[in-house]
Structures are given as structure tokens and as C-alpha cells.
Amino acid sequence: MNPCSSSLMLMMSFAARTFSAGASTNPQHLRLAHPSGGVPNSPLPLIIWPRIVPEEADDCALWFETTFTASGWPAAWRAPVFPYTHYHPNTHEVLGVGAGCAEILLGGDSGRMVVLRAGDAILIPAGVGHKQMYATDDFFMVGAYPAGMTPETLRDEPARLRAAKEQIQRVPVPACDPITGGEGVMTELWLPVIQQLRDN
Question: How many CA atoms lie within 13 A of 13 on its CB side?
């Protein structure tokens, strides 16, 4: 069986309460707050926008590049996801599936698997591990970061965990949602968590 054809089962194991593949176009979220090996992860929820690209758009990748850039997250690349667990300790990252589909492991080896398809977008907080497990031959992502940010990429290395966690705490809050360019799902879900962390 093609792994992408089993997306419903995988998504249900990913987060049965919040995400069922193909069942909704509403944004969903997942918290990966605890470290996994040398992957710090984050108290900020990871956000998935299923099928966010409008049906009338002819080119998913171009739509993502235009939308991300106009929202203050300049599009930086088109490529698959690295086939090893990695994370960015100095910036958040938004990805849009330009074509194909892939199984992505989020949160390190003890994390969750998701299936992403053309037209889906995912916002990965700084520190959250991600790894491409399987992809169709045509799969690629459009990647973007908040304006002025260049990602540092680290692997699952337990010896660097403490320093990485300290670095992640200094990552600035993005000025705007990568889809709307203003208030949106990111600000709605992230700002209360950020405020709570500051109060503690």
C-alpha cells in the first residue's frame, strides 16, 4: 500500500481529537512540548492548515510563495524536507506543500507522524523536530521564515539540548501570521502561550 493512501489512519494516530485527514479544512494544532532525545520541541503549538490553497489557484507553490512573502515571511526555498530529524533553534518555520505528498515525523523519534498533501501548510515552532519519512517523487515544500531570519539547522544531539533550549527562549515572536499577514491562527494560539510563559 502506498503510505500516502493510508493518511486517515496515520492522521488519526497523530491527533485523533484534532486532526483527521481530509475531514476538515479548519486549521488544527498539536503540542509537542517535551524534549525527545536531543530535540527540544516547544510549548508553542505546531499549526496545520489543511487544503489552505484556494481551489481556483493553478499553482500551489506560487500561491504559497506569494502568500508567505506578502505576510512578512519571505519565501526562501523549494525542496523536500531533510530525511533526518532536525530543528531550528533560532527561528520558526512555515512550510507549504507545493506538490505531491509526504509522511513527516514531527517532534523527534517519540513524536507523531503526519501526512501532508499539496495545498497543506504547517507552521513549525523553533525547536520542534521534523523529518521526512516517505514522499512521492513529485513532493516538495515551499519554506519561509519571518523577515530577517536565517535558519540554523541542528540534528538530534542530546549534548546540545541545554544550549539549544536557551537559544529557543530568545527567538522573537513573529510580527504576523504567515497566512493572513496580520492576526490569525498563529496569533490566536501562540500569544496566550507566550504570555503565560512570560508570567511564570
Answer: 13
Q: Is 186 helix (H, G, I), strand (E, B) or coil?
A: helix
Q: How many helices (H) and strands (E) does the chain have?
A: 4, 11
pTM of the model: 0.88
**Cβ-based burial of 196 (10 A; exposed 0-12, middle 13-18, buried ≥19):** exposed
In angstroms, how far is CA 184 from the centroid of its own chain? 16
Consecutive H or E run containing 146: none
* Residue 120 banded pLDDT, cuts 50, 70, 90: very high
In eight-state DSSP terms, residue 144 is E
Share above pLDDT 90 across residues of the chain, in percent, rounded to a whole number: 83
Residue 46: strand, helix, or coil: strand
Could you write out the DSSP letters of every residue in 110-154? TSEEEEEETT-EEEE-TT--EEEEEE-TT-EEEEE-STT-----E
Mean confidence (pLDDT) of the chain: 89
